[in-house]
Amino acid sequence: MSLNKDDNRVVIITGLSQGIGQSILKDFVESGTNVLANSPNEQELKKIVSSISDLNDYDNNNRISYLVGDITEKGFAEVLVEEAIKKWGRIDILINNAKITNNPKIKCDDEVISENKQQQREQPSSYFVPEEYETSDPMIRGIYYCIKAAVTRMLSNNDGNATIINISSCQGCLSQQSVNSYREDNFGVDPYVDSMARIETLTKSIALQLADKGIRVNGIVPGLVLDDIDDELVKDVNKRNYKENEVPLGRIAKPQEISRAVLFLASKEASYITGAMIPVDGGLMLKRPNYFVEVI
Q1: If DSSP codes are grouped into helix, strand and coil, which group holds residue 79?
Q2: DSSP string, 253-264
């Protein structure tokens, strides 16, 4: 699966860190897409982009660029999108792959909503983000900032194949007891698992809102992926075997198996797919305990 190398499309990819992000970047560059990569870690980002740029047979110097910054910071998403516009004149694909892993303290959403309402009055946009999406969850907030900034530009040059892809995780679908007790700062819920679950609602809601504008919005739900799991798990044969036995297909995925699904959703072959959350997990979600709740 590849994109049309003659269409000169432009993609922004956030969360260039480990296996999945690197593989997504490599696949899109090799498919002829102009890529703007993003991560808050400058050293890591430069290393990844440099390794991809060294590939043979591709004019990568003009096709790949990067911008260091944190998408959760107000205003940075606009800067990120404008960088793509400045370099290539358009934005066709947004891939939200950023992850927040430090379990930040959860605050009251009312504080964030009130602040953002004032900012919306001062800086009106052609694409409105509803109040209920303005959240204190940094991961979700960062994704919405990127969507808002990208869609505003997509509306002006949309050829009917603009698309947004959100990368989630099976951790949002499988119940876990990783928080020992209720506390004011975590509500008895693992913040990372909660964020992953909210991505599905985010994806479907925005997909419905943007459908009549010709912008497709979908999500990928990876399972266990090599290079994105703990080194201890990879090196410990017993722990790895235990995890692999939990997966119906009996193995951990390669990063390329995730990135190829992302590439498909961004292609014209997926032109009639929107609002979908596609599991690429070896069947892991088939074992989720909340299945019967969903079908009742």
Answers
A1: helix
A2: BPHHHHHHHHHH
Write out pLDDT tens, residues 96-123. 997 654 444 434 444 444 444 444 444 4
222 strand-pairing partners: 280
What are 96's strand-pairing partners?
Answer: 166
**SS3 state at 152:** helix
> Which amino acid appears at position 198 of this protein?
R
- Could you tell me if 145 and 135 are in contact, meaning their C-beta atoms sit under 8 angstroms apart? no
Under-50 pLDDT residues of the chain: 6, 56, 101-124, 132, 176-188, 290-296
Query: What is the rounded distance in angstroms from the CA atom of residue 275 to the CA atom of residue 252?
Result: 26
Per DSSP, 40 falls in state S
Pick from 222, 186, 218, 225: which is nearest to 200 by CA? 218
* Contact between 4 and 237 (Cβ < 8 Å): no
Residues 6+ apart with CB under 8 A from 107: 136
Residue with tokens 């497709």: 216
Do 40 and 249 contact (CB within 8 A), yes or no?
Answer: no
If we measure between CA atoms, which residue out of 32, 8, 13, 9 comes closest to residue 23? 13
Q: And the tokens for 212? A: 């009549």
From the CB of residue 265, how many other CB atoms can be counted at a distance below 10 Å? 23
Going from the C-alpha of 256 to that of each of 13, 110, 164, 171, 259, the distances in angstroms are 16, 40, 19, 20, 5
